Amino acid sequence: MSVRQADDPALFARVQEQNLLRQYDFLTNCIEIGLSKGIEAFDKYVLWSFNAVAVANIAQFGGRFREQPIYVGNHIPPHFKDVPGLVDQFISVVHENWDIMDHPTLLPAYARWRLIHPFIEGNGRTARAACYYLMCLRQGSLLPGRKIVPERIREDRPRYYAALQAADRHWAEGQFNVDELAEYLADLLQDQLSE
């Protein structure tokens, strides 16, 4: 069962907003578990769950990796057959570098950048949830503040997109560099914590 935006824009918007609230509640539970169990609690099943909650009743295949091509503006996501392996690599990079990259927003920035449209719908919401999950685990607590970083990202899209594009440019040049995105996230995190 799903509602399409074209058929009922008001209902679609309401369901999407309720999904964000449910996703935050679910994210909070996952953060609490992650704080108890450590970074090993972060896996593809958590990502699937973040996505399923984000797109409930607005997409048919929530919580499953896509098995078809998708197009996102000028960006061409990886072939769908590559998605499972790329997600495994992504999780591995996070786990293997958890104790090495101790900057508070570097791995969260990597997470936001590297989650390269593995799902049909809700990729941004899923990646922002994963990013925030890692921020909280890096800080060692569920972070205070009325408006959390994922909400702040939604309100400041131009700088967000520029930072993602900068990471893409570095990658195309053969370099891993998400510093601009990490700095952007650090600013948003500071704003959240200063409320």
The helix/strand class is mainly alpha
Number of domains: 1
Question: In sequence order, what are the helices and strands, one letter per element?
Answer: HHHHHHHH
Distance between the termini: 39 Å
CATH topology: Fic-like fold
**Percentage beta strand:** under 5%
State the helicity in percent bands. Answer: 55-70%
Q: Tell me, briefly, the overall form.
A: globular
**Main beta sheet, described?**
none
Secondary-structure arrangement, i.e. CATH architecture:
Orthogonal Bundle
Helix tally equals 8
Provide the CATH top-level class.
Mainly Alpha
Radius of gyration: 16 Å
Q: CATH superfamily, called what?
A: Fido-like domain
Mean pLDDT: 94
Uncertain runs: none
Q: Care to count the β-strands?
A: 0
Précis, in short:
With 195 residues, the protein is an all-alpha fold.
Task: Outline the structure in words.
This protein is an all-alpha fold. The chain has one domain (9-193): Fic-like fold (Orthogonal Bundle). It has 8 helices and no strands. The chain has helices at 9-37, 44-54, 83-97, 106-114, 123-139, 149-155, 157-172, 179-193. The chain is globular and about 45 Å long. The mean pLDDT is 94.
